[in-house]
Design a protein that fits this description.
Number of helices: 17
Largest sheet: 2 strands, antiparallel
Radius of gyration: 23 Å
Number of strands: 2
Strand content: under 5%
Length: 440
C-alpha cells in the first residue's frame, strides 16, 4: 500500500511536466471525482470482507466464506456498475457546471469504469487478506501503480506529440482546424489528459486480472469440502455486508473530501474573482494569460498548477511517513482489545513521536524551500511554478498538524472507532469550504 502511494505521487511529477497547468487541471478534475470513491472502496470493502471471511475461516465455515466472496462480488460489482453509469450520465453537467471545465468531460468518462473495477478488486483483496495471505493484494497494488505510471506517461506523451505533428503537417488536430501552435496545444491537451486518466482505469483492470488469475490458477486457499458446510442465505450476507460498509465508507469519504472541495470551489471562485476584477488579474498574470489560452483558461491553469505541483509535493510526505507508523497499528489494536490501557498509551505515544519527528522537519523543509524544490523538479514549467510556490509554502506549514491528525485517525480506525474521524474531519472540511469561498 505504501509503495503504491509513493509511486502514485512520484508519477505526477513527470506527468505535470508533460501536461502543464492546463492539462493537469483537466486531469485533476476527473481524478478528484475518483479519489473519494477509491478511498471509500479501498477502505470499506476490504475491511468488511476481511472481517467476515476471517470469522468464517476461524470457525471452519469454509463453504460460507466462499459464498461470502461470491455474494460480495455480485453486490459490490452491481454497486460499482451503478456508480460508473452515474458518473457517465452526469459527466457533462458536472464538468460544465460544478467544475466549470467543459474540456475535462472526456477525462471524466475515461475514469468512470475504474469505479466498478475498483469495487471488484477490493472484494478479492479483502477475501485474500481474510484468509491470511497478503501476497495477492501486495502484488496487485504494485502492478496497479507501476502500470498506471507507464500507461499514463506513455499515453499523454504520445498524444501530445501526435497532435503537434498533425498540426505541423496539415494544421488539423482531431478533425479541428487550428491556426497557431497555442491553439494546437489547447486542442490536444484534453485528449492527452484523458489518455493519462485512462491509465487509472487500465491499472485497475490490470490489478483485477492479476487477482483473478491468482484465484483461477493458483492453489486454493481454503477447501470448501471440509469443515462446517452450512451456508447463510445470500440475502442475509448481502444485507450484512452493505450495513457494515456504510460507516467505514462514510468515514473514508469525509477524510478524503479535501480534494473534492478544492475541485468545486477553486475554479468557480477564481472565475468569479476574475469577472469581478479583471484588471487585477491582467496586471498580475498577463504573461500567463497571453500564453495559456487567455482569461477563460486562467482558472483551470491555476487549479491544475496547484494540484499538479503544490499538492503533489505535499502528498509525498504522508505517503512516506505512513511506512513508519503502519507496522505498529496491529499491536495498538491488540493492546486495546486486551484492555491494557498503559501499554496502549505507550504504543500510541511512540507512533506519534516517531511520525512527528520524521514529518515535522520534512514539512518545514518543503515550506521553507518551496521555490527551490519546485524549480528543480519542474524547471521547464516556470509559469506553473510561479503559481505554486506560495500554496506549497502554506501547505507545508499546515502539514505539521497533519502529521498528528493522520496518526490519530489511523489509531481510531484500528480500535473500531471509525465514527471519530468523521466527527473530527467534518468541522475541518466545513472550515476549508468557507475559507476557500471567502478567501477570493
Amino acid at each position: 500500500m505504501v509503495i503504491s502511494k509513493v509511486v502514485g505521487a512520484l508519477f505526477k511529477i513527470p506527468l505535470t511536466n508533460i501536461l502543464g497547468g492546463i492539462g493537469m487541471g483537466y486531469y485533476s478534475t476527473a481524478y478528484s471525482i475518483y479519489s473519494p470513491v477509491f478511498a471509500m472502496t479501498a477502505a470499506a470493502i476490504p475491511t468488511v470482507i476481511i472481517k467476515t471471511v476471517a470469522d468464517n475461516v476461524a470457525s471452519e465455515k469454509y463453504a460460507n466464506a466462499q459464498k461470502v466472496l461470491k455474494t460480495a462480488l455480485a453486490v459490490f460489482g452491481t454497486i460499482g456498475g451503478i456508480g460508473t453509469s452515474l458518473i457517465i450520465l452526469f459527466a457533462k453537467p458536472f464538468s460544465d457546471i460544478a467544475a466549470q471545465s467543459p474540456q475535462s468531460l472526456l477525462s471524466i468518462i475515461m475514469i468512470s469504469p475504474s469505479v466498478c473495477l475498483c469495487c471488484l478488486s477490493s472484494v478479492l483483496k479483502g477475501y485474500y487478506e481474510g484468509c491470511c495471505t497478503m501476497v495477492p493484494s501486495a502484488v496487485s497494488q504494485v502492478l496497479e501503480s507501476v502500470s498506471r505510471a507507464i500507461i499514463g506517461l506513455s499515453a499523454s506523451y504520445f498524444i501530445i506529440n501526435y497532435g503537434m505533428e498533425q498540426y505541423s503537417l496539415n494544421g488539423i488536430i482531431m478533425g479541428k482546424k487550428v491556426t497557431d501552435e497555442l491553439q494546437a496545444l489547447d486542442t490536444v491537451l484534453p485528449y492527452a489528459a484523458a489518455g493519462a486518466i485512462m491509465a487509472v482505469t487500465m491499472s485497475e483492470l490490470c490489478a483485477l486480472i492479476c487477482l483473478m488469475i491468482r484465484k483461477r490458477f493458483c492453489r486454493k486457499i481454503i477447501n470448501i469440502n471440509i469443515g462446517n458446510k452450512e451456508t447463510e442465505k445470500t440475502g442475509v450476507i448481502a444485507k450484512r455486508l452493505i450495513k457494515d460498509c456504510i460507516p467505514v465508507a462514510a468515514a473514508a469519504i469525509v477524510v478524503n473530501l479535501a480534494s473534492f472541495i478544492d475541485l468545486i470551489t477553486i475554479p468557480r471562485c477564481l472565475n468569479f474573482a476574475l469577472n469581478e476584477n479583471p484588471a487585477f488579474f491582467m496586471e498580475k498574470f498577463s504573461g500567463i494569460i497571453s500564453t495559456q489560452g487567455g482569461e477563460v483558461k486562467l482558472a483551470n491553469f491555476m487549479y491544475g498548477s496547484y494540484t499538479g505541483l503544490a499538492w503533489t509535493m505535499f502528498m509525498l510526505i504522508p505517503a512516506f511517513t505512513a511506512m513508519f507508523g503502519r507496522s505498529a497499528l496491529p499491536q495498538i489494536a491488540a493492546t486495546w482489545s486486551l484492555g491494557n490501557k498503559k501499554e496502549f498509551k505507550n504504543k500510541v505515544s511512540i507512533v506519534l513521536i516517531s511520525n512527528f519527528a520524521i514529518g515535522f522537519p520534512l514539512y518545514l523543509g518543503i515550506s521553507a524551500l518551496s521555490g527551490e524544490i519546485l524549480n528543480i523538479l519542474f524547471s521547464g514549467r516556470q509559469q506553473e511554478v510561479s503559481i505554486s510556490i506560495i500554496p506549497l509554502f502554506i501547505l507545508g506549514l499546515g502539514g505539521v498538524f497533519l502529521t498528528l491528525t493522520s496518526t490519530f485517525i489511523s489509531v481510531f480506525q484500528v480500535i473500531g472507532r471509525a465514527d471519530l474521524p468523521v466527527k473530527i474531519m467534518l468541522p475541518g472540511c466545513a472550515v476549508k469550504l468557507i475559507v476557500n469561498v471567502f478567501s477570493l
